[in-house]
Every structure is written in structure tokens, then in C-alpha cells.
Amino acid sequence: MWRQESAHVLGALLRVHPDLPDCEDAAQEALIAASQKWPCDGLPADPRAWLIRVAHRRLIDQLRADSARTRREVADGIARRLDEPDPAAVEIGSAYDDSLRLMMMCAHPALRRPSQVAITLRCVGGLTTSEIAAAYLVPEATMGQRLSRARATLKDEEFCSPAPDELPERIACVLDVCHLIFNEGHTRTSGPELQGIELTDEAIRLTRIVRDVLPEHDEATGLLALMLLTQARSCGRVDHLGDLIPLKDQDRSQWDQELIREGVALLEEVLPEGPVGRYQLQAAIAAVHAEAESYEATDWLQINLLYGMLAQVAPSPAVTLNRAVAVAMSLGPEHGIEIVRDLLEHPAMQRHHRAHAVLAHLLEQSGDVATAREHYVLAARLTQSVPEQRYLNRRVEALDQA
Amino acid sequence: MKYVILIHSNPQPWGHPTGDFIPEFQSLPQASREKLNAAFEGIMEELSANGELIGGQALADPASAKLYRWEAGEPIATDGPYSEAKEHLAGFFLIDVESQERAEEVVRSFSGPGETVELRPVATY
Fold first, then answer.
1. For residue A280, with 0-12 CB atoms within 10 Å meaning exposed, 13-18 middle and 19 or more buried, which class applies?
2. Which residues, in sequence order, are bridge partners of residue A237?
3. 3-state helix/strand/coil string of chain B
4. Chain B residues near residue A142 by CB distance under 8 angstroms
5. How far is B112 from chain A, CA to nearest CA, in Å?
6. Is A282 within 8 Å of A316 (Cβ atoms)?
7. What does the pLDDT read at residue A195?
């Protein structure tokens, strides 16, 4: 499907008519026309130009059919601009610049993050409303509403890059959107197939676009590395029943060595470049795991150090818990236990299932089986994830049988 | 993140909106009742408009339910209600929100005197 051309077609339209709802309709119609005509007539010599031409025509027709005179006049204005004999009069942007510009538009601060994600998948990913709805396990109508709202909010946004002082934050937002898309695809262990569209693949594709346009942007490279190194290890996370396999028991021979090589190469390029952001640090940690021959052979001290740095740059309970595990592996479980108990002092953490799961695991390692069991039971009751629940309850069973 | 909002109530006689049939609600001054109703309508509009509401239904009288319990290898049907407890399931809403905090913010507008509103996370796979 030519859905990946969506961004370029949309970009071309927005340049002459900065109205996202109108342009999106026209772009979609062009893609539909292609899917109907090309199988019979064959591929045109320049598919993208074909799509843009058809989309422009649809846009003009749409506006001309509008009951409002001003809208019809806009159509005439567009037609005139397109017929302009002087090519310099029509702004030519590079294909990649269009995609990034569109991604930045979709990451507009006026939108909440889930809306940014949905509209990005739609405009840049070219996914249909139904595909996005399936990805997020909501009814199509619900996702339709979210997209309509997002489009309406973006309706009058200029299709140009944000002001220079807004740029760093907007790019950071674009990266966060890509990361969210990747995580959504990665954490799902079962569920509806996306008709061949993997969210993780789409996230990687979008991040590659950002990196290609902004090769100097260290965090974009870092994020790409993180995705590749995570994707590389996705085989073997889950067993044939859909149950979780802990990292120490995973079959590392299933890991994708090519993706690991690419991820590591990216990191070697970017890490020496200066201050490291959170995506680079997370990628570095993933690289240490990916390159380790076994759980025991992992360079835990290095991981410990990296989590320490991550705690400075982007502290969170997840970082603290992961650091506790690394500390336990390098210095002994009691040291890790101390860190988790500290964290559990905070009232907000007391119903946090992962804190109890990690504590249980470390207590088990230290030999305090009775207390470990208590925390496994509590963690199982607090988690919303069914595969995790099953895993934690199996830990309880294992302790009871020992 | 998906949650179900469950309304546990005992409107007498059974009816919707439940507040109309609950003495603790009806005994409030009119201004307070209007405020609570407006809060509920407001949140429903907000959740619908921004795609946080996936669905929901008001439920019919528990006396109209049929219950199925397993006995000697098959389901045996009896007439409702499910329990002799005072409150029964009166309705449910399925929401999809960004965080626990947002869920806890939203659910408050579903709550009223004389009822229990439960916010339950949906299990994920």
C-alpha cells in the first residue's frame, strides 16, 4: 500500500492550502484512487507525482463544490498557483523535510499526547482510522472522534517549521511520540493483528526519518538505537503460551544480531558526542544487555553507572527500580532491597505493582522467602497485566513448592 | 489506560437517572442537585467530545435479571437479583484515559450521595 506516501502528499497539499481537514480528505481520496486504479492500469512512472496531482485536483474540486463563496475563491487561488509557469513560485521542499514538518505539526503542544500519537499515525503513517483504533484497542468511532478533534485543533496551523526557539522542544515531542508508538507495539504480547502493520516497525521508520533529516540530533540517533536494540530482543520475551519469560531465562540465541550491530554502531557514533540525553542512556543500557552472553555475564556495574546517570537526567520510579536490580546484581541483594524499600516509603508507590515485584524478587534472592511471597502476592493483585499476573502467581507457586 | 466506572446503587423504585430515586439525593437543596447533575452532564460531554468515553449503559432492574449457577454439571437459571445486598449494579462506563490521575479526576463527577461508584482498571494483555 502506498500509505507511506501519505506524508509527502499531505505536505504538498498543505503548502498551498494550510487546512488539515481539507487536505487530509483529499490525500486520502488520492490514496484510495491509487489502490483502485493501479492494480488494473499498472504503476505510473512517478507514483508520488501522480498521487499529488490527483490530490490537488480533488482538493480544488472539494472547495469548488462548497456552498461558501470564499471557499470557492480559495479553490481558484490554488488552481492558479499550481498552473504557475514559474516553478520557483511554488515552494519545493525535500521529501524528508515534508515528513518531518508534518511530524512536528502533529506534535503540536495544543494537542494532548495520545492525540499527537493518533494524528501522527494518520497523517505521517497513513494508517486508516480503523487500523489506529485496532492498535489502541478502542472502537473505530472513538478513534474517529479523537482524530476529528485533533484535526480541528490543527486546522489553521501554518505548514512550516516552528519558530527557532520552539524547535528543540517540538523535536523532543516528536521523538516522544515515536517512542510511545514503539512502546505500544512492543508491550503488547497478544491481541488483534494490525493487518501486517507493526507499530514497532512504523515507529522505527518514523524515527529514521527524523534522524535522516537531523543527523546531528543525538537524541534522535539515541532513540533509533534504543528501538533497534529493544526490537532485536523481542523474540524470546514471551513463550508459546503468551506468558512472560524473565530476562535471565530468555533464549539469547533468538536475538537479532544484525539489529544489535546497527544499534551498537549508532551508539558508538553518538555517545562520544557530548552530553547524553535519556534516549541515548536507555539505548546504552539496552546495548549492554544485548551484547551480554548471559544474564550472569552482563556488565552490571556498567548498567548500574548508566542508571545512575539516567536518574540524573530523567528520574522516575522505573529508573529507580531498574537501578535497584543492577545494584543487587553487582553488590548483592541487600543493597538493592534498601533502594526499593526507600522507594516504597512514598505513599504513591505503595500500590505500584512493579515495586513490590522487584522487592519480592530481591528478597527471594536474599533468602527471605516468606516476605518475598507476601510481596509477590501483592504485586499480582495490583498489576493490570494478565501475563504479568500469571508470571507473579507462578513465582508464588514456585516458592510454595520449594 | 482503560477503566470501567461501575455505579452501585439502590434506586427505589428502580429507575434512571438513579439520583431521582434515591432519598439522599432528593433531600438535597435544588441548587446542589442541579450542580451534581450539571457535573455529570459536563463530564459525559467532555469525555465524548475528546474520545475518552468508549461506551456505557444504564442497566435495567436487577429483578429482571437471570442468574446462572453451575450445579451438577450444567448452568441452572434462577431469577435475579444477584444478591440480597442493598446496592446493585446500576450502570457502567468504559473510559480510556491517559493516566490514573485523569481517571480519578473524571470519576468524581459520576459520584453522588447514596451510591457507591467504583473505578476498576481493565486487565491488559
1. buried
2. none
3. CEEEEEEEECCCCCCCCHHHHCHHHHCCCHHHHHHHHHHHHHHHHHHHHCCCEEEEEECCCHHHCEEEEEECCEEEEEECCCCCCCCEEEEEEEEECCCHHHHHHHHHHHCCCCCEEEEEECCEC
4. 51, 53-54, 96
5. 26
6. no
7. 46
pLDDT in tens, A90-130: 444 566 678 898 999 999 999 999 999 999 999 999 888 98
The nearest CA of chain A is from the CA of B4 a distance in Å of: 13
Alpha-carbon span B35 to B29, nearest angstrom: 10
Write out the three cell numbers for A29: 481520496
Whether a cis peptide bond, with omega within 30° of 0, leads into A139 is: no
Contact status of A191 with chain B (Cβ, < 8 Å) = yes
Pair B6, B95: CB distance under 8 Å: no
User: Which residues in chain B touch residue A138, judged by CB atoms under 8 angstroms apart?
Assistant: 51, 54, 96
Closest among A22, A63, A23, A21 to A150, alpha carbons compared:
A21
Chain A interface, best mutation among B1, B46, B50, by max A CB count within 10 A: B50
Lowest mean pLDDT among A148-157, A217-226, A288-297, A391-400: A148-157
Test mutation, A112, A138, A392, chain B, max B CBs within 10 A: A138
Q: Please tell me if residue A37 touches chain B, with a CB cutoff of 8 Å.
A: no
**Separation CA B121–CA A234 (nearest Å):** 27
Contacts of A189 in chain B (CB under 8 A): 125
Cα–Cα distances in angstroms (integers) from residue A208 to residues A176, A223, A398, in the given order: 14, 9, 44
What are the tens digits of pLDDT across the range B23-48? 999 999 999 999 999 999 999 999 99
Q: Which three cell numbers stand for residue B24?
A: 439522599
For residue A63, with 0-12 CB atoms within 10 Å meaning exposed, 13-18 middle and 19 or more buried, which class applies?
buried
Q: How confident is the model at residue A194 (pLDDT cuts 50, 70, 90)?
A: very low
